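Hi L., both proteins are below.
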Amino acid sequence: MEVPGVLRDISVGGAKLELEQPILRGTKIVLFVHFRGPDKQVTTVRFEGIVERLKEQPRFEIAMGFRGSGRFLQEQLGDLHATKVSHAVPAG
């Protein structure tokens, strides 16, 4: 199941996302984050983590903790700028 959303914050240890539907606390997920460089190339980084917090608002806000480090899925690694989450996938 893919859940589209918006990346609100990301750090070495985790991320905060706004999603269109909830993902329950304790769920293992895979997060794909797309970074667009100044040359408009997109670099995708894959993170594995666990949902640590769910807050219901008009949209669902989750906080996830990463398990390990991110993995680059594309070769273009120039300067990384604005971010968007294409989807978060519950691992299973």
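That was the first. Here is the second:
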Amino acid sequence: MAPAKTDDNKLDLKVPEGYTMDAAALDKFKSSMKELGLDSTAAQKILARDLKAQKESHEETISMLKRQDAEGVKALQSEWGTKFAEKAEKVKRVFDFADPDGSFRKDLEASYLANNPKLIRFVEKFSDLVGEGKIASGTTGVPGGKDNRPLHERSIDAFRQLNKKGS
């Protein structure tokens, strides 16, 4: 038995409170429900069910990513042992050099990839080079980032360096 056809009136559907759906997606959903011959009541129930399932799936995915991020920290702590704080500081310096405004790190944190062990191990390989103030590129070296400290701070530091050499 075929489902009862709806009349040509538009389905009256409302996105349930606590959920969001853009207008184009809602129109596509309404069109699908009309093709199935469903009335507004049945279509509304399916919409609520589907949005609830999507939200639960999204929350489950976020929870899994958060666990994965925390497990990444634990893996690095276990791998680096007593040198964890030292190596973490070196990794931070590489990120400071390569991402001075922090936008890349914010994106990593937002996607729960900031503590991905493979990424951190990769970045850590550059820590000694950044610590020396240069990144080697083949047979030539590329100078490190520009010293953006105020002139008086750079001058004081230069003066201290001269005094160390003169001692």
